[in-house]
Write a structure and sequence with these properties.
The protein starts with 11 loop residues before the first strand and ends with a strand. Strands 3-10-5-8 form a four-stranded antiparallel beta sheet, with no helix packed on it. It is of the alpha+beta class. The radius of gyration is 25 Å and the shape is elongated. The protein has two domains: 12-44; 50-137, Jelly Rolls. It is built from one helix and ten strands, in the order ββαββββββββ.
């Protein structure tokens, strides 16, 4: 039988006697440091200009969003009755890449999510004249 022994607190750290107050202060400092780091990482997440547009997508690959080194956010919404496919940095091909389902299928990009892509994004579908809504934040 294994017996687990629990101690009520950590009395020593590196040979120094600790009190509950010492640990509380350390945790408070850590919380502040993490908050500052989080704010710094997310500071470049906000955008001041949002550009809304629509792209007509057909059976030939078209540029849905041009390359933009200042991009911090992008959202693609399929406003059609047919599946649309996105391809990052290459010619779009049906049944490859990012699938946007018909009637509202969407794909969001941002640094916070971890999938921000700043190069050109192309689109294609299996039918002519389908509508893709595009929002870009810079």
């Amino acid at each position: 039988m294994v017996q687990i022994v629990r101690t009520p607190d950590i009395p020593y750290w590196g040979g120094t006697t600790l009190t509950g107050r010492d640990i509380s202060l350390d945790l408070a400092r850590l919380d502040i440091a993490l908050s500052v780091l989080r704010d710094a990482l997310l500071a470049d997440e906000s955008y001041t200009t949002a550009t809304h547009g629509a792209v007509t997508v057909g059976t030939t690959s078209v540029v849905a969003l041009s390359a933009n080194s200042n991009r911090v956010y992008a959202l693609f919404i399929n406003d059609s009755d047919t599946v649309i496919y996105l391809k990052l940095g290459a010619t779009a091909v049906v049944n490859q890449g990012i699938r946007l389902n018909a009637s509202g299928g969407a794909y969001e990009m941002s640094k916070k999510i971890g999938n921000l892509y700043k190069e050109a994004i192309n689109a294609i579908t299996s039918a002519a004249n389908k509508n893709l809504l595009v929002i870009e934040g810079v």
